[in-house]
Specification:
Blueprint lengths: L15 H15 L14 H14 L7 E5 L5 H8 L3 E6 L2 H13 L6 E3 L12 E7 L8 H11 E13 L25 H9 L2 E8 L3 H4 L6 E9 L2
This protein binds S-adenosylmethionine.
């Protein structure tokens, strides 16, 4: 039993595809006002500057990188990466989220493909990206380890994965999540140190944790542990 699935040993028996369909229905339903959430959008100049700082630290503008934003939603990280000078692409299964991402790119004069694809099986060419990023996605996948392995597959040798995640210990299993949360091994997120083992198991090395506890990132002091964990593709 692997590091993540061990936690799911008592999960209700729900087919992964059924869980995934419920997750996607949830985010399609929330797409219209997603960007208004203080932990989702860029609501003020301080928040805007704070996230651009995170991106600059993770991926300075030069050299330009090929970046894949997995579970991109309305394009948050992909657009920031493109604005920082990188060649970014976003994938998501929620069409209503993608439909909001595309005009944002067009309005900013950015060429960012936003494609419908599964985070666990992107169907993209192997070794075609320098950096895979995601924000708030791993926790909502039926098979996070499969996803991490797939992300490693699309990375070039020496490429990195960067996960913006958190430990939302009081997350409520509401709405579409009410019946499926038991099928999501990382539901509610996890402290950063608990993601190191699955990263290593998926073929990454040297995970580094960067706390994201600056209030400006979230418009207020975070109540939960929030962080970026970055790891390199093992040879
Ligand atoms: C909490 S939202 C985060 C959106 C975006 N990353 C952001 O930070 O603004 C989670 C996103 O993951 C997407 N998602 C969930 N499961 C997915 C899957 N199996 N494949 C692709 N996208 C998925 C959802 O549709 C949703 O857009």
């Amino acid at each position: 039993m692997n590091a993540i699935n061990a936690e799911a040993a008592n999960a209700a028996v729900i087919a992964p595809e059924a869980a995934k369909a419920a997750v996607i229905a949830h985010w399609n339903r929330r797409a219209a006002d997603f960007d208004q959430g203080p932990t989702h959008g860029l609501l003020n100049p301080a928040q805007d500057a704070a996230w651009r700082g995170v991106v600059a630290r993770l991926a300075p503008s030069s050299p330009a990188l090929d970046v894949l934003d997995v579970g991109c939603g309305t394009g948050f990280l992909a657009l920031l990466m493109a604005e920082a000078g990188h060649r970014a692409m976003g994938i998501d299964l929620a069409e209503d989220m993608l439909a909001l991402a595309r005009p944002k790119a067009a309005a900013r004069g950015l060429m960012v493909p936003f494609l419908a694809a599964d985070a666990e099986a992107p169907g993209l060419p192997a070794a075609s990206f320098d950096l895979v990023v995601e924000r708030h996605v791993l926790w909502t996948l039926p098979d996070p380890l499969r996803a991490l392995r797939a992300w490693r597959e699309v990375l070039r040798p020496g490429g990195r994965v960067a996960l913006v995640e958190g430990a939302w210990w009081d997350m409520q299993a509401r709405d579409e999540y009410a019946t499926i949360h038991g099928a999501l091994p990382l539901f509610g997120g996890r402290p950063a140190e608990q993601l190191a083992a699955p990263l290593l198991e998926a073929g990454f090395e040297a995970p580094e944790v960067i706390p994201l506890m600056d209030a400006a990132l979230w418009t207020e002091a975070p109540r939960h542990e929030r962080y970026l964990i970055v790891a390199r593709r093992a040879p």
